[in-house]
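Milestone M4 deliverable, item 7.
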Amino acid sequence: MKEAAELLKTVVELYNNQRPHMSIGNLTPNQVHQNNIKMEKLWKNPIIVNQ
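Output delivered:
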């Protein structure tokens, strides 16, 4: 369990701080949150689009 918790912590750190996301202008989630950047929706919900 300890090893799994450590791995999960590492993955969340990578996701939030190191991996840019196309849906938020190639910024990391923490960059957007810390700088209080208002993001325009850059993606489409396929469920709504296909209705």
